[in-house]
Amino acid sequence: MGKDFSRRKFIKNAGSAGLAFGTGMVAAPYLSFGAQPTKLVTGTLAGGWSRIANGLLIDKKFGAKHDIDFEVFNIYGSVRQYYADIMTGNFDIGVGTWDSFAKFAAKGAPIKIAGIITTGSLAGYIAGPNGPNSLAELKGKTLGAMTVSGTYNMGRTWAKAFDGIDFLKDLTVQNVPNPPAVLGLVAANRADAGLIWEHTLSAGLNKIPGSKVFLNLNDHYRKHTGRDMPYFAVAINTKRMARHPKDSLAKAMSAYSDMFQWITDNKTGFTQQASRVKLTPKVLETAVNSGRMKFFTRLMTDAKNREDVLHAANIMNKAGTLPKVNESFFAV
After folding, report:
1. What are phi and psi of 236, to 5 degrees?
2. Cβ-based neighbour number of residue 104 at 10 Å
3. Per-residue pLDDT tens for 226-264?
4. Residue 276 class from Cβ within 10 Å (0-12 exposed, 13-18 middle, 19+ buried)?
5. Residue 202 sits in which domain range?
6. Cα–Cα distance, 319 to 284 (Å, whole number)
7. Residue 141 domain-assigned?
8. Are residues 254 and 310 in the same domain?
9. Residue 71: how many other CB atoms lie within 10 Å
10. pTM for the full predicted model
11. Alpha carbon distance 41, 37 (integer Å)
12. CA distance 191 to 145
């Protein structure tokens, strides 16, 4: 009896040890590599500068030291669909004009902005050599623009608030589906000017002989307010982000900040990324060297940065081009 019992006990204990050893073999890789980084899903526009940024963000692993990773859900040809998908929660985090995100938030979408990443220096009015040289000269003429864009919405607001020029009454606005189509109108003399943003702005300067940027949106805004114009922002879908650890957004913004610093410090390396959007480096060189294309991170956790956005929002609200914006719009 004693020998049988000892044998059964040995077999039982050996089996338990074997199971533990087997479990150890399965668990070992996880113990060896540590916890996996949080993966955030984003989206990108096919021809926009954000495609370059997202490519850099992922390929150069700017999130690695912050224990965060990024994955592109889709590359969009439609601005409308891009915004629709972040609203409905098909991805966590994305880049767009802050006023577009504010419109969606006002309609009840779970959208907040975490930081402003460019000023209005990125956008402006382009015209051919015989085109207008000011908004006053544009009156009575034709403007090409994407009317669904925040760029158009802010541009027409500043024109009305600062210069008394109403796009809907004083101009003929020709709507187009994408920024390159604006250039097509200007190049073909079917529009006297176009309102677009980089890198399409510099593509136009290189493509259309004698073309010029006769007004930069940030210069226009700063002249009348003494402030930089908030423009592109990083936004989140709050419901989807709630799935991730609470510090995920802060880590993501640190990754963006590192990337923008790399762009600032490596202009040649950045301009060589032009092939991602089927451009030559010369186009990005034009954008960067002009001072129009520059990036930074102004977090909404800073009260001054929030106040700058609210100041712009109040001007737009008074002009009837944006619903009321309040502190609930900020991811802090």
Report:
1. -130, 155
2. 18
3. 999 999 999 999 999 999 999 999 999 999 999 999 999
4. middle
5. 121-225
6. 34
7. yes
8. yes
9. 12
10. 0.88
11. 13
12. 10
